[in-house]
Each structure stands twice: as structure tokens, then as C-alpha cells.
Amino acid sequence: MNPNRYHLTLTSEGQPAMHGWWGSEAVAREKSSKWVGGWRLPNVTVTLVDEDTGTVLTTWTDEA
Predict the structure, then answer these.
(1) Cut 0.70: pTM above it
(2) With 0-12 CB in 10 A as exposed, 13-18 as middle and 19+ as buried, what is 36?
């Protein structure tokens, strides 16, 4: 298992504010939902990427 496979990024106004890497997609998705509800920053985007395949698994933005 690649411990850095699932990369979660939180940006605010286009600037990186937080990053995290997990070996489990389930854990990364759980963190994603916590980050979406836990940050009160302007123009937030949370993106989850599978680093092994380069696939964007999910993106959330507060502008949606």
C-alpha cells in the first residue's frame, strides 16, 4: 500500500492552505468531508487526487 496515494488539497483564493496524504481512499474521503465543513476561509476548494493514477476523485468548492 502506498501511504501517499490519496492527496487531499485545500486551497483558499487559489492559494494552498492545507495538504494531506493517506494510503486509504476511505480515510482520505472522510478527511475531505471534515475539511469541507471545518474551514471558514474565502473561496475554498477541496480536491482529492489518486496520486498513483493521476485521477481527480472529487472536488468541492464553496462557489458551487
Answers:
(1) yes
(2) middle
